[in-house]
Predict the structure.
Amino acid sequence: MILNQECLLLQNELKKFAQQVILEKVDEIDKACALPVDNIKQLGEMGILGAIIPETYNGAALELLGLVVSLEEISKVCASTAVIVATHNAFFAFPILKFGNDEMKKKFLPSAATGKIIGGSVSANINEVKVEKQNGNYILNGKNPLVLNAEADGPCTAFITYPEDKKHVLAFVIDKGMQGVKISKNHSVVGLKAAGIGEVLFEDCMIQPSEIIGKENEGDLILQTTNDFAKVCLSVIALGISQGATDAAIKYAKERIQFNERIIDFGMVREKIAEMTTMIEAARLLIYDAAMQYDANKNYKKAAAIAKFFCSRAAVEITTQAIQIYGGYGFMKDYPVERYFRDAQVINILCSTAREEKENIVRETIG
């Protein structure tokens, strides 16, 4: 895959930033479950938080391929930081940019582009929220255990399915300080511990028409369109995790001596590395193809579903193989593959599960 000059410059810039800045504290923030505030601030100054936002709203106006290249380099070192950036762009800015009215765009996008606010998102896949319509407004009660970028304390997009009609979705924005909304940190996540994942509790929360994204009957379309875009971003984070784990395993295998021989020279280890590398190269091609189809205004739904399905599963498989190369040390927090393994488990189910993606692939294939 030959990248254009803009993408190559982005790749080099983000690789340097990840290796020189993010790497220094990645283990520290993971163990402390602490949001990487300094990293995010610097990424905002670099324009990455406003990656897909047009220049009209102070954004960088990158194509999806540019965002993909950036996320890959970040996630090779810290998947949590990459998920924060991906959530801010794909789950928050994207639906507002594509479906929000002018007032909503002016309210949120300029601040999102510079990092003044870090946008989050309430998942539609997991919710226990009751929705009632009263006098043109919507009243929400219940909880949702998966809020991305919750700890960033910014506005969130929300996609809530109706209990009586699971196919109908209400898409809206939860602004900071909205009454009846309590967002708190979730301490029970297995991986992505520094990504600020949290949960939300609604208690008679009133959603007014001005807070709804697009038209009221467009919620399903908004969610599907947002998820297609987000799948490409999450897929490349899975790729970065896979590449980071593989690089760490190769480095360890070159240094580890058993029976007076480096384990990198053992046939079993070499087979694992060959398999891991092959899956990584296949994953990268799938992701870049999906991104380029989007940038060319083509129907990329099938490509996005295939990328998410393959890359998520590959990340779980590759990080498992990396741990096996490390042996018993692979399960210790002193080594990075343990973190990569945990992060891969969460990426595997964010936005969609493997079963859901299989159904999406079949639907797009048979028509």
About this structure: DSSP finds ten helices and nine strands in the chain. The beta strands are 120-122, 128-134, 137-148, 156-162, 165-174, 181-185, 198-207, 257-258, 261-262. The CA atoms of residues 95 and 300 lie 17 Å apart. The mean pLDDT is 93.
